[in-house]
Specification:
By secondary structure, the chain is an alpha/beta fold. It has helices spanning 2-39, 66-78, 95-107, 140-146, 170-177, 191-196, 198-212, and strands at 45-50, 54-56, 60-62, 81-85, 126-132, 155-162, 182-183, 187-190. It folds into two domains: 1-41; 43-212, Flavodoxin domain (Rossmann fold). It is globular. Residues 1-41 have low confidence and may be disordered.
Length: 214
């Protein structure tokens, strides 16, 4: 009789554990679905940036451009694809020559040819757009990029690196160049900070992205 009662108790315990396990599995599946939905809620993201290595203002000769450093931080935090826009004809690596050429392009409203294009442009809903500030404006290749694609219905989020000018008037310029797009608040990071205080820069990037809902 005792063996029979013990057998019944064991069976009831096993049934209870199985039910609990099934409920836990169901919760885990639901939570996974919730995370998946959250990660795709803002659609596909592209970080498109222009950046220049070589001799740069206030940081000397660098192997990786200031804006590239920030762009890679943003891409890592948002799980985004990344695109480096580059002028087909490379700029000079010496700072004085670079600034002279950049100023000539700006005065002539140049639209330099880019080395590559984004093949799957229609896949992206949000574009983080990065650039350094040259002569108080975006480099002219960035204008080439903006005028090469249809931004209708897309969200554009600017960020730059600079030597003290912040975002200058670039947000207005982007808004004008991208009719039909939603242009959000931008982030300005000191070029020197991007090179020499990357923990601080990363913290600023994370706080900014958090404020945007990422």
């Amino acid at each position: 009789m005792r063996r029979f009662i013990a057998l019944i108790a064991a069976l009831l315990t096993a049934a209870s554990l199985a039910a609990c396990g099934a409920q836990t599995a169901g919760q885990t599946a639901s939570e996974t679905q919730s995370v998946t939905s959250s990660s795709t809620a803002k659609g596909h993201i592209l970080v498109a940036y222009f950046s220049q290595a070589g001799e740069q203002y206030d940081v000397g000769v660098v192997e990786k451009g200031n804006t590239q450093i920030v762009a890679e931080m943003i891409a890592a935090e948002t799980d985004a694809d990344i695109f480096h826009m580059e002028r087909k004809a490379a700029y000079p690596s010496k700072l004085s020559e670079l600034l002279d050429e950049a100023q000539d392009e700006q005065k002539n409203f140049a639209r330099p040819e880019l080395a590559a294009a984004v093949d799957n442009w229609d896949d992206y809903d949000t574009i983080f757009l990065g650039y350094p500030i040259w002569w108080g404006d975006m480099p002219m290749p960035v204008y080439t990029f903006l005028e090469s694609y249809d931004f209708t219905g897309k969200t554009v989020i600017p960020f730059d690196t600079n030597g003290g000018s912040g975002l200058a008037e670039t947000v207005s310029a982007i808004t004008k160049a991208c009719p039909g797009a939603t242009v959000k608040d931008g982030l300005a990071v000191s070029g020197k900070e991007a090179q020499t205080q990357q923990d601080k820069a990363k913290s600023e990037v994370r706080n900014w992205l958090k404020g945007l809902g990422y």
